[in-house]
Write a structure and sequence with these properties.
This protein is an alpha/beta fold. It has seven helices and ten strands.
C-alpha cells in the first residue's frame, strides 16, 4: 500500500475487514485528515477499534451498495475467492475507486499447495488426494481456490491501468501453527469428505495425522496481491 502512495488525507475502504489489523494500520497512515471505512458482515472486532478516523459498516458487498468514485484506495484480502457472486462484488468494489485512485486485492491460489518432494511418497499422495477433495467440496459451495491467477485479468477487463501483481507463500510443517489450522479444518469436514464416497475415514484421519508429523513439509497456498489504478477521464490503458 505504501508503494501506491497511501499517505495523510487519503480516503480508504477495506471490504471484508475481519479482525481489523489492516484497518488499524491504514487509519494511522492516513492520519486525522484522512478516513477509513471498514465493512464486514460481522463487525464485532471492528467495533472494538477506537479510532477517530474510522467508520465501521455492517455490509454485504454482494447485495449492499457502495458509493461510487469515492475512495483513493479500495482494499480486500481473502474475500473474493469465497464469493459465488465475486464478479458482482468486484464490480461494486472497483466502481467505488475514484478516478486516479487505486484498487488492491489479495486472493488465494492453490496452485502452489504441494508436498516437499522428499517426503514419503504415500504421505504425499494422501495429502494431494485429500486436498483435491477439499477443493471440490469448496467449489460446490461457490469457492474458487484458483481465483488468485484470474484477478489480474479481471482488473484488465475493468479498464484499470498501471497494474501489478506478486505472489507470496509460506512453507508448512507438521506440528506448527499452519499445520494445526489445516488439522482443525479437515477434522471439522471429515464426515463430509467421507460422505462424498471418494475417500475413507481412515484416509482422512491419516491426512490429519500428517499435520502433527514434524517430518511432513509442504508448500502452502499462494496469496496473490494484484493492484491497479482507475484511469482518469480520457486516459487509456
Amino acid at each position: 500500500m505504501l508503494a501506491l502512495g497511501l499517505s495523510d488525507g487519503w480516503r480508504c475502504l477495506d471490504v471484508g475487514a475481519g479482525g481489523g489489523s489492516i484497518v488499524e494500520w491504514m487509519c494511522h497512515r492516513v492520519g486525522p485528515h484522512g478516513r477509513v471505512v471498514a465493512t464486514d458482515i460481522d463487525t464485532r472486532f471492528l467495533e472494538a477499534l477506537d479510532l477517530p478516523n474510522l467508520e465501521v459498516r455492517t455490509h454485504n458487498v454482494v447485495s449492499d451498495v457502495l458509493e461510487e468514485g469515492a475512495f483513493d484506495l479500495v482494499h480486500s484480502r481473502a474475500l473474493l475467492f469465497h464469493l459465488a457472486e465475486r464478479d458482482v462484488a468486484l464490480d461494486r468494489m472497483t466502481a467505488a475507486v475514484k478516478p486516479g485512485g487505486w484498487f488492491l486485492a489479495e486472493e488465494a491460489d492453490h496452485i502452489s499447495r504441494v508436498p516437499d518432494p522428499r517426503v514419503d511418497s504415500a504421505a504425499a499422495d494422501l495429502f494431494c488426494k485429500i486436498a483435491a477433495i477439499d477443493l471440490q467440496m469448496r467449489a460446490a459451495i461457490g469457492d474458487d481456490l484458483y481465483y488468485g491467477r484470474r484477478l489480474y485479468g479481471d482488473l484488465v477487463a475493468r479498464g484499470f491501468v498501471e497494474l501489478g501483481a506478486e505472489g507470496r507463500l509460506p512453507m508448512g510443517r507438521g506440528g506448527e501453527p499452519l499445520g494445526q489450522m489445516w488439522r482443525l479444518g479437515y477434522t471439522q469436514h471429515r464426515d463430509r469428505m467421507v460422505a462424498t464416497g471418494m475417500v475413507s475415514a481412515e484416509e482422512v484421519d491419516g491426512c490429519v495425522a500428517l499435520f502433527d508429523d514434524r517430518d511432513f513439509i509442504w508448500m502452502e497456498t499462494m496469496l496473490m496481491a494484484v493492484w491497479g489504478r482507475r484511469p482518469v477521464s480520457g486516459e487509456k490503458g
